[in-house]
Design brief:
The protein is an alpha/beta fold. It is 50% helix and 14% strand. It has one domain (4-264): TIM Barrel (Alpha-Beta Barrel). It is built from 12 helices and 9 strands. A 9-stranded parallel β-sheet has the order 5-4-3-2-1-9-8-7-6. Helix 2 (30-43) crosses helix 4.
Length: 271
């Protein structure tokens, strides 16, 4: 079993919502990623979502696109990302790590070989943006053989029957995309999120994480009222980008915002 169910159960028993920050592996260099992962955990992250650099990240807005471009300039590969997770595990054997990326690098490696390598590195789950559940049977089977979760996206336009299919195929948690569009775009409509999360809860026992559009402490707290997990990406990656010329300040810049989100979510949990 991956570390994810235990993480949600532990947070549930504490009356705490799960905070899932995203960063792009290897942005702006390989040496930055693992220290940043540890710093985020120390600041209150419960699960780390690690982006695998890809040349055509169709679901990403300009902030994460640029992050992937910077990582690819350093020739960061899927194997490099697995090495980063392996390095992270030398100090942290508890925090779940989710790889978020696209199908091509996994197909090139091969499903079975990827699943073995990911499990050995200490990965807990995979979210493949461009792989629908109908096409994921073989990958899901390879991952489950090594007790890895496959996480799928549910969008604002996903109908009920498709939500059933997605939640039947997936495990770990359901990732609800709160906006129509790419990461970092649009305005967060909490009323719509509330309705959609409630619908998902009626169809599955899997916890729901909400991402896309979480920009600050206030929006993180609002979403924490509606779902079991809050996923934040572009706002943190923007902090990385703002400090590229001063990499020693990246950790403090990212964790300052993440800490505000954690504090706001905790305050909401006590109400």
């Amino acid at each position: 079993m991956s570390r994810i169910p235990a993480c949600f159960e532990r947070c549930r028993s504490m009356g705490r919502k799960v905070l899932i920050p995203y960063v792009t592996a290897g942005d702006p260099g390989l040496s930055v990623t693992v220290p940043l992962m540890h710093a985020m955990v120390e600041t209150g992250a419960d699960i780390i979502e690690l982006g695998v650099p890809f040349s055509d990240p169709m679901a990403e807005g300009p902030v994460i696109q640029r992050a992937m471009e910077r990582a690819l300039e350093h020739n960061v590969t899927l194997d490099d990302v697995l090495d980063l997770v392996r390095d992270f595990r030398r100090q942290d054997s508890t925090t779940p790590v989710v790889l978020m990326g696209y199908l091509n690098p996994i197909e090139v490696k091969g499903y079975a070989e990827f699943a073995v390598a990911a499990a050995e590195a200490g990965v807990d789950a995979v979210l493949v943006v461009d792989m629908p559940p109908e096409e994921a049977v073989d990958l899901v089977a390879a991952l489950r053989q090594h007790e890895l979760d496959m996480i799928f996206l549910v969008s604002p336009t996903t109908d009920t029957e498709r939500i059933k299919a997605i939640t039947a195929a997936g495990s770990g948690f359901v990732y609800y995309v709160s906006l129509k569009g790419v990461t970092g775009a649009g305005h967060l409509d909490t009323d719509t999120v509330r309705d959609r999360v409630s619908e998902i809860h009626e169809l599955t026992d899997l916890p729901v994480g909400v991402g896309f559009g979480i920009r600050d402490a206030a929006s993180a707290a609002r979403i924490a009222q509606l779902a079991e997990a809050v996923v934040v990406g572009s706002a943190l990656v923007q902090k990385v980008e703002e400090n590229i010329t001063s990499p020693g300040q990246i950790n403090s810049a990212v964790t300052a915002l993440l800490g505000e989100m954690r504090q706001a979510m905790n305050a909401d949990d006590t109400n």
